Amino acid sequence: MKNSALLLFGFLIALFSSCRKEANEKSKVEQKVIDFAKVVETDSLISPRELFSEAEFFLLKTPDSLKITMASKIREIGNKLFILDHKRRVVFAFSKAGNFLSLVGNQGEGPAEFSEVSDFDVHENQIYIYSRGDFSVYIFDSSNFEFIRTIKLEDWGTQISVLNSGNVALYSYMIEGDDNFNINIYNPDGVLIDKRMAYAEDGNYQAMNYTGFINGNYYTYPLSSIIYKIGEGPDDDSVKYEINFPGRFPESSSSNYMAFKESERNKNNENILTKFELGGEGEFICYYHFREGSSNGYTFGVRLANGETYGHLNMKHAAKGKFDDLYLQLFFKGPYNMASYSQESESFLIASNIESVGIYYDYIMETIKSGSVYDEDLLSLLKQTDLEETIIMKFKLKDGL
Fold first, then answer.
1. What percentage of the chain exceeds 70 in pLDDT?
2. Is the pTM of this model over 0.85?
3. Helical H runs in 36-182?
4. Residue 75 and residue 82: Cα distance in Å, rounded?
5. CA distances from 29 to 190, 306, 382 (A)
6. Mean pLDDT value across residues 200-227
7. CA of 255: how far to CAs of 4, 259, 271, 349, in Å?
8. How far apart are CA 375 and CA 383, in angstroms?
9. DSSP for 330-384, written as a single string
10. Can you tell me the distance from the alpha carbon of 342 to that of 339, in angstroms, rounded to the nearest whole number?
């Protein structure tokens, strides 16, 4: 009888554990609507640092002649980091300790040289450098930075993404050519095989570079707050997420740029999604515009794996008097400085925003002097630098608070 009771108890424990595991897995099921108008209630506005389960920091060490001016994209391969400097238009290679290794490729007019780096991506230990002036993608080996080959493209674009299949997607927020598609997809040999992101131009089009992006197999239309996944082969594109926040610009007007400008002037319904990144367990981060009384700006939004959302209603943000947070001032100033997700380390990587540091320099220095920095290793690092050096933060998000 005792053994039977023990067996029953063991069965119930196993069943409970199984149910709990299933519930935990279900809590990470991705919801299509991410709503920053319905956020977790907090007693006061929290720092984004409270959402991190862990964080580590290191300084990028470069020669004086090669200081990074604005690190806008980070990719991790093996024991190396590759970073696009948006202003210098070059890609840096660093060790994971932050030691400078090399620039990837050379600017010039030779067969393996390019005029500039407009964008870059990585795929299967190779680095894809896109130069829009050359209508080409230049591929390099990530282990020794040696040139492999060139892919010639037919069209001009602003961003590239190497899709899961190895095909290259070229995106432009300015419609090119005779059709109304923003994305052209090329096979590895440079043959145009598909067009995506059909765009119904209504005569009021104005190009903007702070809305509309491609990231991996995902993209957003300019002025739209819906994220689509590119369906390769026979699959159609599908809605991945719909992002909602207070005063969101109507999707029905997303092709009418004059309506957007008019709403800006009237300070009404002007809030739009900008950059975004997806984590490996349903985490999602982005910047979106917000208006709060006389204050407005681009704020950081976070959806944790369990579905909890954090934005300007419960987290420190860009409004006057509410941006007094070191982590915001160093790293999370929208709309451009977005963290990159690395599947390799299952972590996010973001570089300090040099422009933001310049704006908030006095406040940051006061915070350093007071010693009131959550991470002691970050405080130690800040004391060693003049703040003109780029700091990388590598972090993971909590499942939930």
1. 89
2. yes
3. none
4. 5
5. 37, 8, 39
6. 83
7. 69, 9, 15, 33
8. 13
9. HT--TTT---EEETTTTEEEEE--HHHHHHTHHHHHHHHHHT--S-HHHHHHHHH
10. 10
